[in-house]
Fold each of these.
Amino acid sequence: MKKIFQTCVALSVFALSARAEELNDFKTHLSLKPSILHGSLDKNFAAALKYDASLKYNLALAPRDDLAFTLESRGAVASKPSANSENLFAAFLFGYAHDFYDWTASEPVPVAGERRGRALPTIQQDPFSALVDFSLKTRFETDQLFNNYNVTYGPQIGFTPKHQQGWAYLMPSCYVDYSRVEVLHSQRYQQLGIAENAFWRLDASAGWLYPIGSEWFRDNRWLRPLDVQFDFHYFRSFDLPAAAQHASLDEAFYYAGTIGYNVRSINPDHPSAFARYVPYIYVSVGRGRLPPVTRSQTMIFIGVTYGLGH
């Protein structure tokens, strides 16, 4: 598995460099969330920064099929690390994606012999579509203090609904990873006297976003910006030493609920000066840990989101 993955990475880098002159084809994303954090393991409030960044290049095989190379990094850091049970990671992915969607004509399309002098009907994409992707992924992951850090590699499969409306928002984005974890350093393993440095891990995650305001309160300018999000992660490790299992390191959960308020949606055509500096406010409550972090706790983030990208 490791040699196969390394070969795929090498081929990906070669193909990417062959088209490197088309830099405008890269898609970038950056989200910064300066926040105030309160963790249940630390009684004081802490300054925190959550971030999500990616650089993606699509080879554009066909309208519905694509190959993509992605560099991404995500994590959270806090002025009091004991209050933070989220991880930091940087990853490289090479994968194939297929977009499932259909088109609907506004009226029957005339046959070839009857088209002269008649305008063709408009064709619109159906409201629901989904993206299914399969990737090979390697990533470096660590806790904030770099007391425990790993390198992982393996396959990932994902499902992402698109163009949702109404109750279709209840359908989550889902990802499943099955990775080989190579432990580079683990203070916790050293404390437990564990010399084993590799194991397999299953990571299943799901995420929901429901724009309550735009779905239920479209005519109310103050409630229209509201949305809610829910994220869930489950980690299950295999072939761990007995000491790690006894310390509950073989299984982990993380779930978080978020309420967001898009200040720019109050007056989208002429946003206020306040909306330019504070575009999106959020409150998030999470519980658990994201490996290789070893301690679970409840965390409350209150902050502002700034987003860039194209």
Amino acid sequence: MKENKKKEKGILDTVREVNEKEKQAVRDKKAKLAKEYEIEREEYAKSIQEDKLELLKLKSGVITESEKLKSNEEEKHYTKWQKFKNFIYHSKWWLGIATFFAAVAIFLVVDTLTQTKPDLNVMLLSDDVELYSRYDQMTQWFQNISGDINKDGKEFVNVMYIPVSDNKESNENNEIYYYDTTLTKLSAQFQLGQSMMIIGDENCKELIEAEESLVNLEELFPDCPYIDGYRLCLSETGFAEKIGYNGELPEDIYIGLRKVTDTLMSDKDTKENYDKAYDVLKKVIEDLS
């Protein structure tokens, strides 16, 4: 299974494929709606043309009465309920699309009004059991360092646990399901520009294409002795003591920053989230030095 994972596409490739599939789905939907609209337009134009011909025959005396026009006149006398059903039938696609976007808008408004906005989002990609057991202490430590960044009167750092592991003690089918679920969560986060700071280990290196997707911290903090390339190596700092970690922290646990790339968020929002993560990382380095 470990060999199979190494052959999996990196998270950036997965994100690109998902984005392209979503764009293609939108294009297909638009093409289908356009085709249906064109068919309805052609049928309507054909009906109008036939009515004109019938009317011309009546005026020229070719015919004395028209069953078609008479039928059309009778059909125009709809009840309110019939008019309503007719409107729903002919507008079902547009109403469906409008309902979907209205539901999304309502959800976003309610979510925005009721949910506490994090000052910082951090992805925890290590499955180290002891590290996760110190989740509350780690979150509190980050909150003490970051402070109230968004000025809402609350200090809140959202640490998202997305464990990446090569050592699952389960049967092969469950392991595949576990890995696919993890990949889905990770892909979703990498499509967004919210979580620009990660805590990872060697197990996630190939999956997130660390050397390509993470910032070279040596260029940003050349004087920090705990930095190696894109990694702030936590085992060499007082991180374990800060969060009450029992035993020795694994040497491959590190903090990294994602590069600013194209995401589903605007470039401005992604850059703002990166700047927040960068400022917090500076405070982290100062606190651990």
